[in-house]
Fold this sequence. Notes:
The protein is built from one helix and five strands. The protein is an alpha+beta fold. Strands 2-1-5-3-4 form a five-stranded mixed β-sheet, with helices on one face. It starts with 39 loop residues before the first strand and ends in a 9-residue tail after the last strand. The model is unreliable at 8-36 (pLDDT under 50).
Amino acid sequence: MRVRSSVDRSNRLAPTPNSDLAAPRVAEGGGDAGDEGATTRVQYGIHLARYPLRGMSVAQVRRFLSPILNIDPTAVAVIGTTRIEDEEAHHVTGEEPMLSFVKPSSVKGAA
């Protein structure tokens, strides 16, 4: 006899709002966390998610998401096709197509 589970499997990998993995809420007037205009796509390896990161430096994003996405400390930050050299100085505007953290060997022209 087969028992059907009542668990919704369509969204089983998404963190719940009360989960430690849930993204921080956007400040009032900054949009809703579910609003794609208020979030930035971030990728590391197989992990891809949207987070409300506008105004954070790339270094802050790395520190915030490292435990969530398991970002390697040697990974290189790339926005679009541009390698970010100074992570403290570059801030997320929300207009970036995607912020990726990649292994140095994955960056074209890397030694």
